[in-house]
Amino acid sequence: MKTLRCCDIVGHVHDELIIEFDSGASPDAVREQMGRTPPWLPGLKLNADGYECGFYMKA
User: Fold this and answer.
1) What radius of gyration do the chain's Cα atoms show?
2) Which of 20, 35, 41, 51 has its CA 20 to 30 A from that of 7?
3) What is the pLDDT of residues 1-59, one digit of tens each?
4) Where do the domains of the chain lie?
5) All residues at 6 or more sequence positions from 3 whose CB lies less than 8 Å from its CB, including other chains
6) Closest CA to 27 of 53, 59, 1
7) pTM for this structure?
8) Which of 45, 2, 37, 41 is nearest to 17 (CA)?
9) Cβ–Cβ contacts within 10 Å for residue 7, how many?
């Protein structure tokens, strides 16, 4: 979450983030950022998934 300071995080549920986007923003860019390995944990393989919707829902 600290690496996503530029995003408007409006909530989180366990391992999910709820982010509000402008219509021109790219969810792919957020997924890429969330999948980056932190420098203090080399070798960790991270992956992120996401979806767009007009309201919060459990996928």
Assistant:
1) 12
2) 41
3) 778 877 888 988 888 888 887 777 778 888 888 888 889 999 999 888 888 888 877 76
4) 1-54
5) 33, 34, 36
6) 53
7) 0.68
8) 2
9) 17
Q: How far apart are CA 27 and CA 43, in angstroms?
A: 25
pLDDT at 59: 65
Q: How far apart are CA 40 and CA 26, in angstroms?
A: 27
Place of tokens 């969330």: 34
Residue in the block written with tokens 């366990």? 14
b/e code 17-48 from CB counts within 10 Å (16+ = b): bebeeeeeeeeeebeeebeeeeeeeeeeeeee
